[in-house]
Design brief:
The chain is of the alpha/beta class and about 325 residues long. It contains 10 helices and 11 strands.
Length: about 325
Amino acid sequence: MLEDRTTAASSPTRWPAAYPKGYAVVDVETTGLARDDRIISAAVYRLDARGEVEDHWYTLVNPERDPGPVWIHGLTNEVLAGAPLFADIADEFAARLADRVLVAHNAVFDWQMIAREYARAKREAPVRQRLCTIALSKELGLPLPNHKLESLAAHFGVVQRQAHHALDDARVLAEAFRPSLRAAARKDVRLPLLECRPLTEWNDTPVPLIGRQAGGGWGGYRPSGWRPARRRPACPYPNPGRWEEGKRLKQGMRVAFSGDTSVDRELLEDRATEAGLHVSTSLSRLTSLLVTNDPDSGTSKVVKARQYGTPVIDEAAFGQLLRDVEPATRRR
């Protein structure tokens, strides 16, 4: 399950003092894309401060459920039956991530899957910052036709041998990240680092095993989605407008969320709904408040909030405001 490879000394490039001291390039394969899906394999390439590979590690993980789209990742029930549970590999995985910046392609996905697995195991992943290679390629202005990993790899001449295999995807990303990091250092580019907030509360929805097809496929898989959309009841109160600093939230206010939250997002949304707020999945001029722990993330919601002048607060402040929400004066 573990292989180590030590490589040559770091590049002599003049290095920005503010850059991280080490990186963990990560790829996880999963049973799907939803919050209740599970990790079925994981790979980590540990890199030093200048992007040189220190070692790499790979493991299968028994998801304790149907493996999902086998035709994508190739991992059947039979292959995963003897694999360790996530709780069994949590310590080793944590040791690979500790004191390093997590690097991934579309890093928010890999981070959220990892954070959820640790929350299920009643643990916290030792990750405090992440770096998305898509965001870094944008910062560098790389002339890529799209944001796929294969395009980033082709730009740097990296050969992909087995797409959707966690170990090979992590290798490809590590090899493409090294020249990206050096280019950033030469140009003294500020790395697009984002904070990672480990989940402190988690509520997992049981997922029934679905009838399997021959060869271990997922009989009930739908290409358009892994689970039905969750519908919340319509807010019964009119929107009283924007929240003002120093004042209470009022029932009917339209609240949007962006980025990681330490409480599972759906639990936080449930609490807002129960308090009489309107939880919105998008941000518009009617939004009363945006809740985000990453105000500098540059997500579409954060950008729109700045354009519209929508108030922005973090999760902790929102939690305090939820304790005393002003009742609405009327219903719709």
